[in-house]
Amino acid sequence: MDPSQHPLVQNLMSLHLPTRDYVVAGSGPLLAHGLKQEVGDLDIVARGRAWEIITALAPPIPAPSGHGRMALLFDGAIEAFDMWLPGTCERDELIEEAELIHGIPFSPLRRVLHWKQLYDRSKDRDDVVRIRRYLAVSGEPLH
Fold this sequence. Notes:
The protein is α+β, with helices and mostly antiparallel strands. The protein is built from six helices and seven strands. Helix content is about 35%, strand content about 15%. The longest helix has 14 residues. The relative contact order is 0.18.
């Protein structure tokens, strides 16, 4: 599936954020690689102009992780963060290593695998299996 056809991704694209200033994180990369057909929301990590555009639309509030701030767009369908999860890489590194898929910057699956394993939430365990299987078949390194 072309991720740009997904309603959540279409909402994201309607913001016209500069691709060099954000990345889709969370489970969004699984959608981009066809490993999931649905996600509950899109998590994005933003900086610079992208963060300015986002916070002009929704006031930032403390992130639930206690790490940085977030802004909720489209009734919470898009959760934008100025930092990603504690214990993961820095925002700029995350954004700079993004993979463009249909013109949209997504976190690499190996990075998604890292934080889903790190946090070991029950809701992520199926995703870990999917990602490991996908990376094994594609020959990509797991780290």
